[in-house]
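Here comes my example:
=====
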Amino acid sequence: MVIDVVSLLHANNLLVFFLVLGLGYLVGNLSWRGFEVGATSGVLLAGLFFGHFGFQVPHAVQEIGFVLFIYSVGLQAGPRFFSVFAQDGMKYLALSVVIVASAMGAALLLGAMLELGPGMIAGMVAGALTSTPTLAASEAGIRDGLAHALSAEQVDALLGDLTASYAITYLFGLAGLIACIRLLPTVLRIDLPAEAAKLARENRTGFSTDDGEEQDLEENRTLRVRAFEVANPKVIGRPLRDLQFVRTTGCVIQQVRRGDDLFLPDAQTMLEKGDLISVAGPLSKLEGLPDFIGPGTFDAQLLETPIDTVAVVVSKAGAVGKRISELHIPAVYGCFITRVIRTQIELPVSLDFQLEKGDVLVITGLKNRLERLVNAFGYVERRFVQTDLLTFCFGIVGGMLLGQISIRVGDVGVGLGTAGGLLFAGLIIGFLRSMHPTFGRVPPAARWILRELGLLFFMAGIGVKAGVGIVDALLTVGLPLFVSGVVITLTPVIVGLLFGRFVLGIQPALLLGAITGAMTSTPSLNVITQVAKSPIPALGYAGTYTFANVFLALAGTALIYL
């Protein structure tokens, strides 16, 4: 039996679609000297290849991908986007606006010089900044707005310009930004490891409170539980508050056995000779406790204390906007923070680290103590394993209906468009979910898969469409578009660097991370953290990333109408 593969693929668009996804992931896993192509780039390249040879994918998958991706962007940004206006995020907000505006300004100027249409201008911005939200919003703007004033042929031409210019400028937008970020510290003679170390020293990697407790958060990752017998006369008969136990030892007493009684201690508890206590803390701190408390011992019931680790989503007013030093977590709750995650990026934690709505704290402690802490801080998202598909679907419906509202300017309808409507609906649902965790719940894994599938579905359709005219575009305007893409990639970096350093006064290690966040380039963040030999730049990245996703999507719609 002979199978004509070419005919089979031409006859089965769905087969082509999954082949593009599979090969795209395969290409995306390739790496060279630390540079990884990535799934998004891999799917785009695979789509360009198949599109060039005339293969097609079902149009519906691109539409579904667009809806899932844009709405998921809003869901992810919602918890922080509104609340940050009342906190210290204004610098990062301003930096995000300046970077997006400088990219738009450079594109409009180059477009006027080269006499390019709105499709190519929007595509250049999307590709040069590797911003899929910009591309998706631009396409929606063409279909929703300009389509009413243009013929079907003109709309198809604009969409072709959009995808072709995106494809031509994308690769430098990806690789060029990484190279630029890697070289900037050398060119500017910035000792990035020293700058990051300076910030770490100023803010410290531990925390202290009014009660005096201090704890090295890095050491918290090696927590252990040991049992001791109280024998030191210096600790007998004195309240734990007076002993400043947490500050002195770096550990927390979990339970006390006194005779047949087993109880949880508080700040007023006084230890008695012969008490058996279980203590949790970093291994290095526990080793010094026999000199402070008394000899180590074995007590099965104490050592079988159910220690657990939970990921707590910060949502309660008592924790949002507070610095870790203000929360007195070891002294008040007897627990330890081991990690903090913001917008899916693990951040270094310092004395002055300020929590924002939607932050995820990974905390270790006794189960009953953890429950008290969770009730005060927010909720454990992993308890909600089901996605609220009712809210999810009607949120999308509401966003699409919102996108239909427009104001007529001449023959063109101007409004949020489908992309803006979906984005705004996602922001609202995400924000409400952060305040009411049972509303519109979408667990992290579900959010990730919906966003990732939406992105790759959309990129597969875009790549195949762009592949049809990519060769002609390269031969006609390829070089001017490529050079324009280089300018658009580099302009926001330079403008953001100058504005952030001399106007906002952001330190270099944070600023370079913030620039990668404003350009939504996670690969560039990985590079800058390697150069800095520190996770400090991730703080800047998290500060701008949420804003940038929203502003870049809105920029895509705006560029089509300008």
Observations:
- The two ends are 57 Å apart (CA to CA).
